[in-house]
Fold this protein.
Amino acid sequence: MGNPGRSGTDNRQFLDGVLWVLRSGAHWHDLPERYGKWKTAHKRFSRWAQKGVWEKVFHCLLKDPKNQYLMIDATLVKARQQATTGKRGRVTRLWGDPAVD
């Protein structure tokens, strides 16, 4: 069995940092210090995405019919200018869709 590494010190701080980046539309390197090191947060975010953790979180949230925090739209998440693509740009991939290499 491999070394799983160390556990995150504060999951709430990490999630708040991820939500800050998504809401603000800022780059990861602009993450305020109160959320920890930006590189660590980005690496953890990417690992969670690869392992399917975000999908599990969303599925758990979907199970609660009274959950009022499921709606994510343009008022919550802003896209950076680099997120827009021109003609025949990158195809948008929905959350949960497997990545194509």
